[in-house]
Task: structure prediction
Amino acid sequence: MNNRSERIRNILVPILSVLMGFILGAIIMLISGQDPIAGYQAMLKTAFQSPKSIGEIFVTAGPLIFTALGFAVANSAGFFNIGLSGQALCGWVTSIWVALSMPDAPRMVVLPLAVLAGALAGALAAAIPGLLRAFFGTSEVIVTIMLNYVFLYTSTHIVNNVMSKDLMTNKGVTKVIGENASLRTGFLKELSSGSRLNIGIFMALIFLVLIWFLMKKTTLGYEIRSVGLNPFASEYAGMSSKRTIVMSMVISGTLAGLGGVVLGLGTFGNFFVQGSSLSIGFDGMAISLLGAGSSVGIFLSAILFSVLKLGGQGMPLRAGVPIELVDVVIAAIIFFVAISYLIRFLLAKASGSKKEVAIVEELVGKSDPTSQEGGKI
Amino acid sequence: MDIALIAVLAPIITQTLVYSTPLVFTALGGTFSERSGIVNVGLEGIMVMGAFSSVVFNLTFAETFGAATPWLACLVGGVVGMLFSLLHAVATINLRADHIISGTVVNLMAPALGIFLIKVIYGKGQTDTITESFGYFSFPILKDIPILGDLFFKQTTLPAFVAILVAILSWFVLFKTRFGLRLRSVGENPQAADTLGINVYVMRYAGVLISGFLGGIGGAVFAQTIAGRFAVTTIAGQGFISMAAMIFGKWNPLGAMGAALFFGFAQNISIAGSNLPVISSIPAVYLQAAPYVLTIIVLVVFLGKASGPKAIGKNYIKSK
Result:
């Protein structure tokens, strides 16, 4: 079924979704009495105004790529990891805690240790829903949603009541980590004239390749994908679906944890109490869906989202458009990706060939009864 | 029972009811949606829209309608919630979208849209505090019953009793009426229901829209009893707790109500607990996390694999 027009549709769907998201944003601005052209101009001008702002685009993209990859891995195995925010939060708190408790250790010791600890925290956080799913059949969707809140309150508790007082500056805000644990380097800072650009984005690029390799070239990757396609057939073929379920969730959580690490050791340099789930969790999910889980797709989507997020900050000042419009546009883009059946169907109709329409109907219809296997509640 | 004990217990009961009411409404909404086979993780977003619209209505019309304002605002919240849930309905029922993704979009969209509109309307990130909120209410005759009257019917919150009434009504509708039977059959086996001439799409729309209406009311009640205004943090997790209550209650309206009352009690304790003797010594984190952890435990221990409507989360495509 991999014919040319289907491949074209696969590329057109995300592009059209983005376009329609922007159009919807424009309509909302028009209805609420604002100038959409001025709004989007302000967004682009803010995002690309200086080398520093361009550096910040990559600062924002780093953690997003990690959470998006995390979602993609779990999704290939047929699971919805909605707990990316919680897992990233675990990575963030843990890495900062490790970094702060070793202020005098050499960089070569403390930096890898803090990164590993953060990744491990994310992995453990995701292992819970993975194990429950594998051994009790509990829906990972519900468990990860619930755990997001558990981790949110736990992180606040750790910062306020568990961490020793001399690691804190104010209530709810930790000290800034030392140079020895920071992902930032003098060179990158100079290169981007003073932005917070750090090695995080390069780590993210390496992991884009690593995960591509893992999923496409290794046995584990093959097993994950085959369990995602048909768990019963995979079990029959001798694969342990229990092991694969747990492994895919652990890898997913490790990546989300690393997203939190980059946020902590790179972007902010400290931890402060969060009022709600980390946005990199849901944005990562959106990016992965928009990028259709592919490495290139995730990279491009992450850059797009970073431009949106950063550019959005300039919209209230330059055009009087509230920054929340960006999140409306992002939500709309995912909505259009979610209803891609409609887009595919219309594209096939537009091509004027009845055969194309039939192919689309069949492709989408067939995978349907088994979709949502992860949604057994 | 002496007067001192009543003086301690009565406010706890009232506050528990206050915190439970929004959860009861929203959990009932979730029950209707999931019974029809549509997973609704968008309850949180629907509550946000209900809270947003009710607060705007309340601020605008408080002078016109006086004490009736919060009640009318609840209806407005319900209607707006219903309109917003239409997004989820169209996507999942007609356009074959994944239920979880669509619900997540609802959750992402609602707070952003709400705050965007608040900024456009009021020029700031949050609204003023409403002037007309649900006050305390004493039942005319019932309050004179000894002990019981003091505990439940004096200086209490009326919306809670409405919510309990709606729960009983929902149970009746779901399990004792033809509509309820059809709604459930569509959630269990849409093919069979279709064969019997039940319009699967219509029933599923009904399920999602009822969930939007009740969820919107839930958000409106929360905004007008507890928060008092609308801001980003007004609805923070109540929609997910309601979803937990629905699962806890095994997709049964009365069970969902019971679970919502329990979660309301837990929320109330975690907030008011600092004044109570034993509870103040427990770190807040345990009480805050309790509803979520309990949900996971209940899922693992009591529900196991087969539970919930059979066809839940599966898109139904009518064959020609």
